Amino acid sequence: MKKHLFPLFLLFLGINAQAQQDFFAIAGKDTPSINFSDFRAMDVMNGTSGEKIFTAESSSKVISQTRRGVVTEDKNSFNNSQAVTMAALAYDSSSNNLVYMPMFSSNIYVLNPQTKEITLIENNAVRVTSCDINSHITRMATGYDGNIYAANNSGTQFLQISKKGGQYVVNDLGIIKDDASNGKNSFTTLETGFGGDMIADADNNFYVFAASGNVFKVSVKELKAKFVGKIAGIPDNYSVNGSAVNAQGKVVIASAKGAPLYEVDLATLQAKQLPGEQNLHIYDLASKYFVNDRTSSNSLSLTDLDIYPTRVDEQFVNVHVNNKSVKGNIKLNVFDMSGKNVMTQNLSVKDGSLDQKVYFKGLISGAYIVSIADESGKVIINKKILVTQ
User: Fold this and answer.
1) Which of 369, 359, 356 is nearest to 318 (CA)?
2) CA neighbours within 13 Å on the CB side: how many for 358?
3) Is the CB of residue 231 less than 8 Å from the CB of residue 240?
4) Does the chain have fewer CB atoms within 10 Å around its N or its C terminus?
5) What residues does each domain of the chain span?
6) What are the CA-CA distances from residue 243 to residues 79, 213, 255 (Å)?
7) If DSSP codes are grouped into helix, strand and coil, which group holds residue 33?
């Protein structure tokens, strides 16, 4: 639910080997109601907007995943890829694409930020009724397992969007219920739990940042939402409509009402205003980062050192280094979940820079830990990945 119950469109990502963009937003027009304007990159360190990737006026080519051909959409309906009522966005790190849903529609779309081509994912799992705000999908994020998850306003649908054989598959995982301890801070009622956005942690839990400023921790296994607390340090009338994790592991929130961005410490729920633009109308945020992601044992940020994607469909990962303190030969090790070393490869860093594909040899589908150590043997990054066929 955005713009009090539900805001607008979306955020998108583009990542390349030389310069990684990893934070995007659905921006809206300055109107009383939701009105999609564009997808744009965000500089959340400085609280400013970047490049506009795709706009409401952009020419679009929509291809049906089911029919494997171009489809013509009614631009005056809620069921189109540039509908004014956008409220849910996630980043698919396996393809560097943006996945999103119009709020009044069951359609799922995948935008390629480079080619601007859009894929329509038809599905029978989503049950959205345009006149029922409870059913609107307004929260979406990529889980640490590489799948994309989405929830409607009242928690009666919790969706998993996975990829099998190059095709997106949608499953309804069930109903998210209130934890018994929530009391008056219900996850399922309009005043306390509707709308906003959600982020994921490294244990594949999700945190829903409701429009009210309330925060709920959602367990995928138990399908329960536990009230964590209310964000402190934001204005009383601040509508929380977008949330995403930055490279430092903090949560950035945004509002559809025209307001600055805030950075929130999930441990304390204390917010601090970010510098930069003060009148942004943001309806959703997305990034590639996770809370409590123990990817680094030193002070290097994920923009300096990274291994991606976390969901590996093409049998390789990209290793990115951009830090002068990392020198010479580094060693990449891959461990299975039992701790067995199943692969080792030496890499060479020149002038603090490296962008290289590392191909896996004979690894079966499953979860692994990829570890990189510097010349002294000190581990400088650990990252969990999921290898799929």
Assistant:
1) 356
2) 25
3) yes
4) C
5) 23-296, 300-387
6) 25, 11, 9
7) coil
Calculate mean pLDDT across residues 238-263: 93
- Surface-to-core class of residue 117, CB atoms within 10 Å of its CB (0-12 exposed, 13-18 middle, 19+ buried): middle
Cα–Cα distance between 143 and 77 in angstroms, integer?
31
- DSSP letters, 132-190, are -GGG-EEEEEE-TTS-EEEEETTSS-EEEEEEETTEEEEEE----EE-TT-TTS-SSSH
As a whole number of angstroms, the distance between CA 352 and CA 160 comes to 39
Q: Decide: residue 91, CB within 10 A, 0-12 exposed, 13-18 middle, 19+ buried.
A: buried
Nearest to 176 by CA among 202, 150, 199, 200: 150
Q: Is 348 exposed, middle or buried (0-12, 13-18, 19+ CB in 10 A)?
A: exposed
Domains 23-296 and 300-387 agree in fold:
no
Length of the chain: 389
pLDDT tens digits along 173-215: 999 999 999 999 999 999 999 999 999 998 889 999 999 999 9
Does domain 300-387 sit in CATH 2.60.40.10? no
In this prediction, what percent of the chain has a pLDDT beyond 90? 52
- Closest CA relative to residue 137, chosen from 290, 281, 280, 7: 7
384 beta partners: 369
Identify the pLDDT of residue 170. 96
Yes or no: domain 23-296 corresponds to CATH 1.20.58: no
